[in-house]
Structure formats: C-alpha cells, structure tokens
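User: Can you predict the 3D structure for this chain?
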Amino acid sequence: MSRIAATFSALNKQGRKALIPYICAGDPLPEATTDVMLAMARAGADIIELGVPFSDPMADGPVIQKASERALAKAIGMAQVLGFVRAFRERDGATPVVLMGYANPIERYGIPRFIADAKAAGVDGVLVVDYPPEEAESFAVALKAAAMDPIFLLAPTSTEQRMKQVGRIASGYVYYVSLKGVTGAGHLDTDAVAAVLPRIRRHVGLPLGVGFGIRDAATAKAVARSADAVVIGSALVQLLETQTRDTLAPAAAAFITEIRAALDEGTTP
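Assistant: Here is the predicted structure, written as structure tokens:
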C-alpha cells in the first residue's frame, strides 16, 4: 500500500478528512522550503503538495504565478525540487509528498530520469496539470510501476467520459477543481461542490480532494463535509510571501493548525 493510500485508510478509520496544503518549492526562500514542509507535517498536514515552478502556469492565479516567478528567479528547477523532497525524507518518512506542476519541466528533465529520480527522492505522487488522462496513460503506468501515484484533475466542466477515464488510470486520490477559473479565484459554492461529488464517485473509486477557492478554516470545514480531502494553496502561499526566514515555518504551522482543528471538530481522536 502506498503512503497516500495508507494515509487515507487511516484517516477513514478515524472518521477524519485529509488536509493537503500546497506550497511552491523554493518560495519565498529556498533554504526554508524543507523546514516549512516539516512544520506543516508536524502541525497536521496529511499530504504535502509541492509545486514545481514553471514560467507559464495555465491553471494558477496571480498569487501562485508570482511564487513561481520568485522561485525561478532563484534558479529553482526540477533538480532542486527533488533535493527538497530528499531533505524532507531524511526527517519525515511518513508524510506523503505529491509533486504538482506542468509537463514542460518534467519533459525537459526527461520522463524516465524524472520517474527514477522522483522515486529515489521519496516522492509519492505526481499531478501534471496539462496531462489529460487520454494522453497520459503511459506516464501513469510508468509512475505506478515505480510505486508512485498518478493524480488527475476533474473540474465542473468534466464530462462523464472524462470521469471514467480518470477513474480508470488514476491512483492515490483525484483532485476536484471546484471553480471555473484559476487558483485563488472566485467565490466557492460549497453546495455546488457537494452536489457534484456523488456524480464523480460513480466513476471514481478513489478519495476525492477539493481545491481552488478554499481560503480559511470555515470554508475548509464546509468542503470537508462532502469531500475526502481539502487542498489549500493560494491563501497559504500568500501568507508565506510576507514572512521572514525566522517566521516562515511557525507561520505555516499556525495556519495548518487552525485548518486542522476546524476539520477535526466533531470527530473522535
């Protein structure tokens, strides 16, 4: 059983929902990325999504775009991202890490080399925003062969056919994009999210995480009533960009602690 599957299995037995924070690797300070990851894990993050900086991120709003730009300006590429994961694994062997990004950095690095190096670093899953399932089956098979989970996106506009395709080749969890737009944009309609998830579950037998538009504890708690996981990125990235080296990890931990407490209200430890 993968670390991701084991995490969801344990949470399900406890009646709890997964908290999945996203940060951009290398932002705002490369030397603090691993410390922030460790702080979030200690504060209650169940899975960490680590963003791979890219110059043309089609699904990311202004906050995460700027984070990528800052990281790229500090020469953060795939080799450095995998280095952060290796450093994290030296001190945390349990918390799953998912790389989230775009096809270009992976293909430029070389797909076979990427899969081998990601596995060696301790990566548990990979989400490539611009790899639709019908064009990524061989990539998904290669990831699974290396004991890593290929994670795919679904959106409000996804057809039944797309849901079936994702359900057939994905593993780990499926990320439902709750808004028609980019990260951090718009007003999240939690009732609309609750209405669509049962339709997705008819085709997808994996845990469903919901992201885009979740900015605070109240929204996270509302989404968690129907989802298996809550993914939160832009609000966290925006918080971190204002911190100093000494306050980065504590600020991340405080943010995660608040969201974790909201998700756990009403559950029995």
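The chain has a mean pLDDT of 94. The first helix runs from residue 3 to 14.
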